[in-house]
């Protein structure tokens, strides 16, 4: 019998239930995929908590990697036995197996494992669009990356260095500072004991940074704007500490005519061509060894609730996978 994590009410990790789940034959345009690894992401906690409302009951999870077991009518791009991964589509990655539209899948290159594929699709494609499209980082840019030892942050630090940027990273503990430096951060700020806007101004000789990549949300948003150079860009792409409060747009002029954007992954992979292009570039940089995917935590899929507790308590670093 196939099993999956589902929840019938929003709330803390305790609402996650390990349940038997029927799995019919794939419909037209779908494949049946046997998961070998499932990715854990902060957005999963937003869905579980109700911050991002869903119809209930619901599955959970947006990325996984595995093997195609069967294909529905009209599917000719994939066949049983193909190794694939995905980072979009209906929620439901927290499952031993599932049916999913074939249009959401990408082939895994031979040199990339199932665990790597599950760990990097959402986080890695996010890093790709943030660094290459939202604000295209250029050699010589000084950038600020919050949560530099986290899942997205650890990929972004390495990739930004590859692009020639000077990287300032923030972390919450000294242990994470060691990891951030090992990833390539030129400067690391432990925000629990340093005011990061003042430290950023000191590092940049008063100029500020070209861009701030902020997945933290409410607790860092205003201070992040204070780190920008004139006409710099604030990229707010997460809510780890809660949603950003309303603010007066005049603040942007006072900060130096700066820009603010709130991008979302699915607007950057809205077409199949975009998905394949972004995933292809990600696979290239990971396959080259220049950007490494650090899988620092593994949990049994049925123990997803504990994985959520550890993620929200900031006890995790790098990427985490759930194993069916």
TrEMBL record:
GO terms for cellular component: cytosol. The keyword Ion transport does not apply. The keyword Oxidoreductase applies. InterPro entries: ADH-like_C, ADH-like_N, ER, GroES-like_sf, NAD(P)-bd_dom_sf, QOR-like, Quin_OxRdtase/zeta-crystal_CS. Keywords: Oxidoreductase. Its EC number is 1.6.5.5. It is an enzyme of class 1 (oxidoreductase). One of its GO terms (molecular function) is zinc ion binding. It comes from the Bacteria. This is Quinone oxidoreductase. It comes from Thauera chlorobenzoica. The lineage of its organism: Bacteria, Pseudomonadati, Pseudomonadota, Betaproteobacteria, Rhodocyclales.
